[in-house]
Amino acid sequence: MTNDTRPTIADVARRAGVSKGLVSFALNGRAGVAPDTRDRILSVAADMGFSPSLRARSLSVGRAFACGLVIGRSPDVIAADPFFPSFIAGVEDEFSVSGQVLVLAAATPGRQEEETYRGLVADRRVDGVILSDLRADDARVPLVASLGIAAVTLGVPDVDSPFTSVSIDDGAGIRLAVDHLADLGHTDVAHVAGPATMLHGRTRTAAFEAAAAARGIRSRVVATDFSAADGARATDALLDAGNLPTAIVYSNDNMAIAGLGRAQRRGLVVPRDLSITGFDDAEIGRHLFPALTSVATDARGWGAAAARALLAATTGAASEALMLPDPRLIVRASTGAPPTA
What we know:
Elements: H1 9-16, H2 20-27, H3 35-48, H4 54-61, E1 66-71, H5 75-80, H6 83-98, E2 101-106, H7 111-122, E3 128-131, H8 140-147, E4 150-154, E5 164-167, H9 170-184, E6 188-193, H10 199-214, E7 218-223, H11 228-240, E8 247-250, H12 253-265, E9 275-279, E10 293-296, H13 299-314, E11 321-323, E12 328-330
Parallel strand pairs: 1-2, 1-3, 3-4, 4-5, 5-11, 6-7, 6-8, 8-9, 9-10
Antiparallel strand pairs: 10-12
Helix pairs in contact: 1-2, 1-3, 6-13, 7-8, 9-10, 11-12
């Protein structure tokens, strides 16, 4: 092989000491390859600068070698939410070594979203999709099933689903935040929640209310669309209402950071006058003053797990319900004992 000749799959197989078929299985993320063998093949391919031709592979096996992620939120909300860049990085961690391409689209829930899914399938642009932000009675699940492509859901749908689900226990993280505040002595805690139309927003709200009741905490909930702007609005509503809560549990870090700013603008000192917790443990929260107490989830690990599950689904693997490790509460300076009278 000369310096100006692209290495072939046969060259990779020869150097790795395996068959061309096994190299193909390893590069495509298919089952039947031992982990150490797969790692060796991928390492050899990387060292040789091997890059499979997607066009040739697509024509030979009738696949797109691409998977889709259609996010049903406005582009502004997606751009500001630290979860999605980390999640997408995790997906790319897996796709980059298996020759897959991620097709990303943002679409307004409803007709435009349905047309986006139908277009991806009609144009044979993807072999499968990741369904995020599951909703109550989510119409996307039967839609994607009817289109005949593989899929993975982030969370367990509340409708019949033939797809693998990859989940974390959102409620566990909220319970940790409430218990932490209760242990500090708080008895009046509010929750700035996500929309009830999203299953994880609903799950976190239900967990908050149950945990507050179990600890004898007076609670109240303000719903939002998960954006920082709506988190600021919800914070203002709570602080304008009288009988101020002594702590606020936010359903994501963006809203918690916005709420922290609104409270401090009013002259409140966090955590002396008001304790604040977030969710997702975004890096920026660690550098605030005070640093943000937050529920830590491994968004990048979740993306990698979803990508592996989707690659398996595209090869005909049976569906399953996969649970990731529970979130952890990272306690920092934004929480403390409630103010004394």
